[in-house]
Amino acid sequence: MWNVGGWQVDNIRLECTPVTTVAENVARVRERVQKALRTAARGSDEVTVVGITKTFGPEVVRTVIEAGIADIGENRVQELLEKQDALGTGACRWHLVGPLQRNKAGKVVGNVVLLHAIDGVRIAQTVDRLARERSLRARVLLEVNTSGEASKHGVAPAQAPATADALARLEGLDLLGLMTMGPASRGADETRACFRSLARLAAQLRGITGLPLPVLSMGMSDDFEVAIEEGATMIRVGRGITGERV
């Protein structure tokens, strides 16, 4: 069974069972965000929701935007460019949340508001060069692998101070903060520890770099409440908004 146009389809039989709409999902996510902010005694406008629409077509992205999500994130460069072509670069604030390869950097520098997953000095230097050639400054986050999982990208926490210091010295970059992903298939305590360590690391790096580093991009559909309680200012929500991917 799969969802098509708001209906559930089982082989060739069309069932009249309504499916939760994107607008309803967005409203539910915003309720969860506000509840987490109240729990953490934080202001109601301290978190930006980035809607993640990977594998969904432009029409779904348009629906997400119309539901009030002004920030859209994509994991892959080509998919990002295709949706920008279909919807326009001004349709929303576009984010690249997945890892960036050096040979594709030229396609996105200047075309997104934020690169979330800068995971080393070499890719940062490439982005810096392209930004300076285009007379702009690229806004970036340093990705940190707080869980230590080999399947995840990002620098190790121990390497973050030196890496952040190197990024802060690049004239074509605005280093705005840090990004991480919670651990896969672990309990709430381990997830909270990862997010808490990123917030502590950001405080340390502010002293090293002299930068305010206001952005902490952490938390996804299943764990963003914990991330908000630990200081997230940006959460990346896919399934919680679009529903399950086909």
CATH topology: TIM Barrel
CATH level 4 superfamily: Alanine racemase
Q: Estimate the helix proportion, in percent.
A: 25-40%
The CATH class turns out to be Alpha Beta
Outline the biggest β-sheet: 8 strands, parallel
CATH architecture: Alpha-Beta Barrel
Can you list the strand order of the major beta sheet?
Answer: 10-9-8-7-6-5-4-11
Low-confidence stretches: 1-18
Which structural class is indicated by helix and strand composition? alpha/beta
Topology:
Layout: E1 2-4, E2 7-10, E3 13-15, H1 22-39, E4 48-52, H2 58-66, E5 71-74, H3 77-87, E6 93-96, E7 114-118, H4 121-133, E8 138-143, H5 160-168, E9 173-179, H6 188-209, E10 215-217, H7 224-229, E11 234-237, H8 239-242
Parallel strand pairs: 4-5, 4-11, 5-6, 6-7, 7-8, 8-9, 9-10
Antiparallel strand pairs: 1-2, 2-3
Sum this structure up briefly.
By secondary structure, this protein is α/β, with parallel strands linked by helices.
Which terms summarize this structure?
single chain, about 250 residues, alpha/beta, TIM Barrel, 3-stranded antiparallel β-sheet, 8 helices, 11 strands, about 35% helix, globular
